[in-house]
From TrEMBL:
One of its GO terms (biological process) is maintenance of CRISPR repeat elements. This is Type I-C CRISPR-associated protein Cas7/Csd2. InterPro entries: Cas7_Csh2/Csh2 (IPR006482), CRISPR-assoc_prot_Cas7/Csd2 (IPR013418). It comes from the Bacteria. The lineage of its organism: Bacteria, Pseudomonadati, Pseudomonadota, Gammaproteobacteria, Lysobacterales.
């Protein structure tokens, strides 16, 4: 069933003694706003966790396949689309990028039908074999921590080496040194948007929306690693509009979710207070707390 409502949502999640999103341009230090010191987690990182969760739950099978995944060869996937619409002959020859407009539209529709992340987040699929571009109905912002974070650096040792040559250099001592970066504690907030108009274009359904909510609630439970420490969703607040165009500006709704700390140095979720102003909501808007 297609969507006929607009949705705006607020996602709250925490990290304890972990690195929620390292910056490869800064030695994998936790991402932060250089001017304010607030921690950042990119929308790409959050979407990766949603993709991984859906792939885990649905077995990476149509119509819930994942387009952007580890070791994926995108042009091979595009070729599958042309084979799926019965236009495999267009793949012959050297000029694979620009095909007939009708075939590209059909290939784009096939990708939306079979890949959850394409019809949810959109994709640019015009590399090599052209399946067009899709603008996704679900968009996420960067997540930002409620307070400035402190990135701690730790020395770690490994009681092994990779090669015999390294072992000889160590004179029998196989210990090698490394560095690890963590955030002692951080509470992050991200904003999200769901457009029913774009959902109709991609085929994003109510079932897909329910799966998205489930992923946002549970994705950290299946993304454990030593690097990320303890991460958990602490709040998911969904504003539903009666109108497809919306009954209130998103920013005004987001301002109803306020986070304030009640400890000088927060080290747990209990050190914060989340105030939810659900009184006198705009006409046509309802607020549902999923976490």
């Amino acid at each position: 069933m297609s969507l006929s409502n607009r949705y705006d949502f607020v996602l709250l999640f925490e990290v304890r003694d972990g690195n929620p999103n390292g910056d490869p341009d800064a030695g994998n230090l936790p991402r932060l706003d250089a001017e304010t010191g607030h921690g950042l987690v990119t929308d790409v990182s959050l979407k990766r966790k949603v993709r991984n969760f859906v792939g885990l739950v649905k077995g990476d099978a149509a119509p819930y396949e994942i387009y952007v995944k580890e070791k994926a060869v995108l042009n091979k996937t595009h070729e599958r689309a042309y084979e799926g619409i019965g236009k495999a002959e267009l793949l012959k020859g050297d000029d694979k990028k620009r095909k007939g407009g009708e075939a590209v539209s059909q290939a784009r529709a096939w990708m939306c039908q079979n890949f959850f992340d394409v019809r949810t987040f959109g994709a640019v699929m015009s590399t090599g074999v052209n399946c067009g571009q899709v603008r996704g109905p679900v968009q996420l912002t960067f997540a930002r921590s409620a307070d400035p974070i402190i990135a701690q650096e730790h020395s770690i040792t490994r009681m092994a080496v990779a090669t015999e040559a390294e072992a000889e250099k160590q004179d029998g001592d196989n210990r090698t040194m490394g560095r690890k970066h963590t955030v002692p504690y951080g509470l992050y907030m991200a904003h999200g948007f769901v457009s029913s108009f774009l959902a109709k274009q991609t085929g994003f359904s109510r079932d897909d929306l329910e799966l998205l909510w489930q992923a946002l609630v549970q994705m950290f439970e299946h993304d454990r690693s030593a690097a990320r420490g303890e991460m958990a969703t602490r709040g998911l607040y969904v504003f539903k509009h009666e109108s497809e165009l919306g009954n209130a500006p998103a920013h005004a709704l987001f301002e109803r979710i306020q986070v304030s700390k009640n400890a000088e140095i927060p080290r747990s979720f209990a050190d914060y207070t989340v105030a939810v102003n659900d009184a006198d909501l705009p006409v046509g808007v309802t607020l549902t707390r999923l976490v």
